[in-house]
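Suppose a colleague, Dr. K., hands you the sequence of a protein chain of 260 amino acids and asks what its three-dimensional shape might be. Before reaching for any lab equipment, you can write down a predicted structure in token form. Begin with the sequence itself:
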Amino acid sequence: MRELTLIGIGTGNPDHLTYQGAAAINVADLILIPRKGSDKADLADLRRQICDRVLTNRSTEIAEFDLPRRDATDPNYRAGVEAWHEAIAAAWTEAVSTRTPTPDHVVLLIWGDPSLYDSALRIAARLEPPPRLRMIPGITAIQALTAAHRIPLNEIGAPFLVTTGRRLRESGWPGEVDTLVVMLDGDCAFQVLREENVTIWWGAYLGMPEERLFSGPLAEIGPKIVAARAAARDRHGWIMDIYLLRRTPPGGLVEERAKV
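The predicted structure, expressed as tokens, is then:
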């Protein structure tokens, strides 16, 4: 392939695709859709739904491929991720090279935005020969979360920090920042925090019919989120969630709500 385009598709709602993204889909020779196992078949289905809605170019081909799994047991986290990225790059290459004729322009649809806690750019850098790379931004999970809860991302003039569940679990609340956005948290790392007067805004399946939202004092709402998250994951076989934590004045009252 001579050109690879990474298109952000938001958090699963086809309406999150931008006009620029839709236009890029329609000039592609090949759209690659990863399969992540039967328990995550919905993720491939959502990508196909997006293509069904916006694809008008009849010559564009859609091909699925099996996404390699990361060895979560590797004690060296970074080395395990590097090996995983290498395997994904090989899977992309194989999926493209088996098409006849070999497509010039390939598209990958990326959850959220390709620039934020996504590895597609790093994986693309491993391709040989390197294709010309284009990236079209999408709605981030952070935007979807704050919009769903109708809250600002930061306090007036104050910074915020975006981090991962693993970093929060290993290092606790970092520095003097009062607002944290936590992504990629499969174990509800907020349970390790000992800070008082913390408010949490949590969301899963943002923008989708299955959307779930909880907010309120962490000490009260945290256990409810843990239970709701486990139940939703069992029901759907997968979950994508994100949350915002903010130190709040004592006695602050925040709405709690759940959307099913």
